[in-house]
TrEMBL record:
Coiled coil: none annotated. One of its GO terms (cellular component) is dendrite. InterPro entries: WD40/YVTN_repeat-like_dom_sf, WD40_repeat_dom_sf, WD40_rpt, WD_repeat_striatin. GO terms for molecular function: armadillo repeat domain binding; calmodulin binding; protein phosphatase 2A binding; protein-containing complex binding. This is STRN4 protein. Pfam families: WD40 (PF00400). It comes from the Eukaryota.
């Protein structure tokens, strides 16, 4: 995507909308329109490098981005803003949050961390 200078670490697509989201080493989360192949916007996580980008919830317009600073950030997809940031895991072996996921039919999210914990958020 335009404007990105960091390595892309993960790419996910929205389950029902023509939207692709990428996360990269330059602390950027980028939204792309699949129909027009246009770059829609950039979001920046100023406190951490974003490794995996979250999947987008199939039941609500939110996504979650895990960071190397042990926190999770809840993003409102439509407004493209961070609406909540919270600590989720503890750092271990220079890693923090390893993965996040949404179930297909519930308004829940789950995260897995290097601290050997899996957490479910309602």
């Amino acid at each position: 995507p335009s404007g990105g200078s960091g390595q892309v670490n993960q790419v996910v697509t929205h389950p029902s909308q023509p939207l692709t989201i990428t996360a990269s080493d330059d602390r950027g989360i980028r939204y792309l329109d699949n129909r027009t192949v246009c770059h829609l916007c950039d979001l920046t996580c100023v406190t951490c490098v974003t490794s995996p980008v979250s999947p987008v919830s199939p039941v609500s317009p939110v996504s979650v981005s895990p960071g190397h600073d042990c926190s999770l950030r809840l993003w409102q997809v439509c407004q493209r803003t961070c609406v909540q940031e919270f600590p989720a895991h503890r750092r271990k072996h220079s890693e923090a949050v390893l993965a996040v996921a949404f179930p297909p039919r519930r308004a829940l999210s789950a995260s897995a961390g290097a601290d050997a914990l899996a957490k479910v958020f309602v």
